[in-house]
């Protein structure tokens, strides 16, 4: 249709365009874009992994905290059976309990008891203040919860 030997005879819209200077300047830009995308993806992956690690640690502390709470509560209940026994004399003192059941394995309770005499009218009333600290350890995670209970005889 148009002779290739005379490009000037092409119509204006069909003139070939040459970009030799800009093509040389753009050389390697794909590599820069690829490195940028890799760096951004690496940053996203690192932040997500840090978030996952933080989330799993908080879950461990939450579970261990619940176990420590139940260990402290069990310590209080066992101390109440010593303060108000079905038979025999009441005893109020400190004790340490180590649990071996599946739910509280690795937990212990430190229980203290203090008897206080309170005058209530003409009758002396004894007030027992029980304090129990449940401590649970799993690997490097140590949690503790403290409960205080006051009962009157």
UniProtKB/TrEMBL annotation:
The protein's name in its UniProt record: Type II secretory pathway component
The entry's keywords: Membrane, Transmembrane, Transmembrane helix
Which species? Answer: Alishewanella aestuarii B11
Q: Does the keyword Transmembrane helix apply?
A: yes
State which residue ranges cross the membrane: 28-48
